[in-house]
Amino acid sequence: MLSVMENTHDALHDVERAAAAPFVNEPVSQWWYPLLMASFFTAMAAGPLLISQGRGAAGMGLQAVAIIAVGAFYVAHRAKSGTSPRMRSAPDEIKRAYRWLCLAFGGSMAVSVVVWMLLGWQGGLSVIFVMTLAITWAYERILYPRAVQQVRDRLA
Question: I want to staple 132 with a disulfide (CB 3.0 to 4.6 A). Which of 13, 38, 73, 144 is the partner?
Fold first, then answer.
């Protein structure tokens, strides 16, 4: 009976390791990825501003270029990594890091709005760019790798 329980435990461990594989085997993002994301979010915020100033073509064009650039990155990234893992099936350690990312982006949005209201659009767009750059860099270079190591240690 003990052998069956050990085999079941080993099988469950193997299943958990396989489910975590897309997250722990994810290739490290390129050095410029935080710049891409900072530029994307800044462009998405600047587009409506340009449109409201009567420069609709420039605003829509800026947003279109931003969407195409990020879309092309994700298509290439998925082709390179061979998968696009869903957060729903992520290990708890990865989910915690991702929750931090979402909360940090939410907080940066609030700060950006306040700065925009106090200092104008130049200050607001600057804060969007700098905070998105810092948050994305911290997630990609510190939090996600730490979470991956925690998953590997737990499943070792």
Answer: 38
